[in-house]
Amino acid sequence: MTSTNHCRMLVVFDVDSTLIEDEVIELLADCAGKRAEVAEVTDRAMRGELDFTGSLKARVLNLAGLPESVIQESLSKITVTKGARELIAAIHNAGGKVAAVSGGFTQLLEPLAKELKLDYYRANQLEVIDGKLTGQVTGPIIDKPAKAQALTQWANELGLSIKNTVAVGDGANDLDMMEVAGLSIGFNAKPRVRQSADVLIAKNDLSEVIGLLGL
Which residue range(s) make up the domain with 141? Predict the structure, then answer.
């Protein structure tokens, strides 16, 4: 176990519209010609108008029958948010750890996490059978409570006080994580996050967080 002497802070990012500019479910839905339907449900969920678990299952159902190759195809379309790499490097240089927890999917987050040198990551798992997406997810759903649990678990593993954790997010699904973190930062924030975040970043540039954290 790492002691607090070795780790100064833990910064946990939401992924879609935070660490990346995209909503991965919409990139996947493009392949099924269902982007508009999925985007509408995503917007309602992020505004907190719909239960996340129900909305996730409804959106993923649109992907049923797509070949597994759409995962790689969608991955190639992802745009990492401006300043993300600089911010991650600054956190690491200051002796901190970086994590991402997503209501999206492990199959896309895992290669992204490796590229960005994240220390921890967690997301939902798309079910794939015989090379095709089934339209289902398997395992625990990464919803609001699960995001908060991930942040708390990682802090405990690092021997880090919760007050030395930072949560960065944009939507309703990030609210529990942002509430438990020592500092909550709203980025591309939806109305409910704007109301509750400790700090808001107005520019679409994550390097703005570097100065905010005193790095």
Answer: 10-21+80-212
Q: Output the domain CATH number for residue 169.
A: 3.40.50.1000
> 15 near 102, Cβ under 8 Å?
yes
* Largest CA-CA distance found in the chain, in angstroms, rounded: 51
Q: Which pLDDT score is estimated for 43?
A: 82
Clarify whether 43 is annotated catalytic.
no
User: Domain total for the chain?
Assistant: 1
Could you confirm whether 130 is annotated as catalytic?
A: no
Among residues 103, 111, 99, 38, which one has the least CA distance to residue 72?
111
Sheet with 120-129, strands from edge to edge, namely 132-138, 120-129, 97-105, 10-13, 165-169, 183-187, 199-201
* Domain-located, residue 29: no
Domain membership flag for residue 57: no
Across the range 139-154, mean pLDDT stands at 97
